[in-house]
Amino acid sequence: MMQQAAIQAAFVAACTEELAAPKPGNVHVHADGHGMTVADFVRSAQAAAPELCRHGAALGERILSAVVATRTAVGQNTNLGIVLLAAPLVMAAERPDRDLHAALRRVLDEANLADTEAAFRAIRHAAPTGLRHAPRHDVHGPADVTLAAAMAAAADRDSIARQWATGFADILGPGMQAYLDARARWPDPAWAPLAAYLWFLAAFPDSHILRKHGPAAAERTRQDAVPVRQRVLAEPDPSVTLPELLEWDRDLKARGINPGTSADLTVATILAYRLRHGDEQRPE
Hints:
Elements: H1 4-19, H2 38-52, H3 59-74, H4 80-93, H5 100-110, H6 113-126, H7 147-154, H8 159-166, H9 169-185, H10 192-203, H11 207-213, H12 215-234, H13 242-254, H14 260-277
Helix pairs in contact: 1-2, 1-14, 2-3, 3-4, 3-6, 4-5, 4-14, 7-8, 9-10, 9-14, 10-12, 10-14, 11-12
């Protein structure tokens, strides 16, 4: 079990670490984009952290209060996906069980109807781009199932919902492995978030792109990510690929393409790592 101050610091550090990676199409220290800045995301993390880590608060309450605090701080939706992924991870880290994955499973299983209602309110408050009515368990209506059931119903069209339905399988499995491999291989661990981001982006169509631009654009971006990922991983020093990454970054942003879900999944991967290992520079 981690102390609340350490968990809160881990969340802010995970958000900050992700911003340092040159993630094509997304906001990072080399380039802002999509009407958002690095400063917006830093303020969002700082605003959301106390609400996410409020000891004794219910899961849905944490999600809703973090989203409200974020919009108050920056006036737009910058971190809904991050909050939906971080809240159960944070609650799992608060438990005495040293197995984060097992504790996370229990947090997800124990979420109740009140948590669903609060999460639905948070999603409506954030008003993410492309949010539409769903045939079942619509966030625009009253909650009628547990949050786990609602996420399972959306898992085939939304990667964040799929994490809830699978016990964060993509994050704690191959996404985490990509992050750990990069930390072990490259002298500068600051590039590890990029390795995770490119794994998510190449593995399946990004949900944010899918909602905003449709399946063809999402699949094209996924296919384009495959050779980029291969070239980055082939380099002993990934910094030599920065010009290529920034060129693709400019192209994606010029077309309004933002792989925001892949970035959210990356933050959650870093957070899970920090909750397991602390702020060390090498994995255990």
